[in-house]
Design a protein that fits this description.
Distance between the termini of chain A: 47 Å
CATH superfamily of the largest domain in chain A: Tetrapyrrole methylase, N-terminal domain
Oligomer: homodimer
CATH topology of the largest domain in chain A: Cobalt-precorrin-4 Transmethylase, domain 1
Strand order of the largest sheet of chain A: 3-2-4-1-5
Structural class of chain A: alpha/beta
Order of helices and strands of chain A: EHEHEHHEHEHEHEHEEHE
Largest interface: A-B, 58 and 58 residues
Strand content of chain A: 15-25%
Number of strands of chain A: 10
Largest sheet of chain A: 5 strands, parallel
Number of helices of chain A: 9
Helix content of chain A: 25-40%
CATH architecture of the largest domain in chain A: 3-Layer(aba) Sandwich
Radius of gyration of chain A: 20 Å
CATH class of the largest domain in chain A: Alpha Beta
Number of domains of chain A: 2
């Protein structure tokens, strides 16, 4: 029998890639025994479960939605099945639950109540991009989205630039996909030309690209990243 | 035929755990076709390859060592097979190559020369600990080892404390395993009692423990983390 715990299931980043490209076989063992899932989106969670195992009886599974519209008071009661001794799972839209995603609140409640949490291995665009960038992996920061408006945006860029120089800390961040190209132009215009930028897009998919160049070279590029999920790293 | 590229192969964190607990099945596809590996340690790389596939012909494989004793000039020539069109692999001691490990220098050279780099999915203690901690996954920093000596150590702790408060940035770091217990005591003595500390040890293994508590509770703990690889998170 599966140990009662909150199991965190990573989901493939790329929709067209087979599950075994980025999920260890073992993850299916707890997956098959869990009947209570907290998910970011029910439709995509069902699709993921079916992809993992076509024999899974989806109708026997209870899904609870935890997304950016969930209010804080609603989170704690979601753990009731686990408090009654039943294993539970968390499935996010893509990548690793609780990293850049609402699942962290649920994990925090589980930790406060002394419930066991089991994170499973899977794809993280942050980590894959860092591995492929060639940048410092001994010290790095993930900053989420940059502030949209000035002057907060320029201040943030300056702060990241300072941490690269003073602390040799790789700076990682994301942008809304339709603004990717504009971001590359902006970085090239506002930071030193010898600063290195890595853009990683389509990770784990057929069109994966991980490209590191100095900003002076990026300013002349015609590479198109608009509308593809991408992750940006500076060093 | 496998596309010529520098493939980055993660390795299980826990020695006693089957490979399929933390490595996707797919990773074995490129692994079987590569005859040139850059490794942190030849013995453990051979052991990993044999664990992945007992049929692998280890004697047909060329291993080049890249570790903390390798001088910078030695790194670039290691990529010669790839420049001649042969796929190459990187295998580190445990976890993901190029994250907190010398492989990053090799990836940097590959990027400078416009060679393709393919990071593969696998276990990262940093990411697993972050997922399991319940801390902010939208903003986090990995700091590597804390400085050993004062006053640099106290300054670093203060800086991390400031970034938790001002930026809500989760702070992640590691310690030499035999000093783990002393570190917990030190943190409890020098930071506010309501600051949350997560200690994650034995990740992906049978004795995995991921425990988040306020420092006021850690100061009274009798939990023993000495000599087990652990990762520390503050929030």
């Amino acid at each position: 029998m599966l140990t009662p715990a909150l199991y965190l299931f990573p989901v493939p980043i790329d929709n067209d890639t087979p599950v075994n490209r980025s999920i260890p076989q073992y993850n299916l063992v707890p997956l098959r025994e869990i009947h209570h899932f907290v998910v970011e989106n029910v439709r995509s969670a069902r699709r993921f479960l079916k992809k993992c195992d076509r024999e899974i009886d989806i109708d026997s599974i209870e899904f609870t939605v935890l997304d950016e519209h969930t209010s804080p008071e609603e989170v704690a009661p979601m753990l009731r099945p686990l408090e009654q001794g039943k294993p539970m799972g968390v499935i996010s839209e893509a990548g690793c639950p609780a990293v850049a995603d609402p699942g962290a609140d649920l994990v925090a409640v589980a930790q406060r109540r002394g419930l066991k949490v089991v994170p499973l291995v899977g794809p993280s665009s942050i980590l894959l991009a860092l591995m492929g960038s060639g940048f410092n992996g001994q010290s790095f920061a993930f900053n989420g989205y940059l502030p949209i408006h000035q002057p907060a945006r320029a201040t943030k860029l300056k702060e990241m630039e300072r941490r690269i120089i003073r602390e040799r800390q790789t700076q990682i961040f994301i942008e809304t996909p339709y603004r990717n190209n504009r971001l590359v132009t902006e970085l090239a215009a506002s930071l030193p030309g010898d600063r290195l930028l890595c853009v990683a897009s389509g990770l784990t998919g057929e069109h994966e690209r991980i490209i590191t160049r100095p900003l002076s070279a990026w300013s002349k590029t015609t590479l198109d990243f608009d509308k593809t999920p991408a992750i940006f790293l500076l060093f």
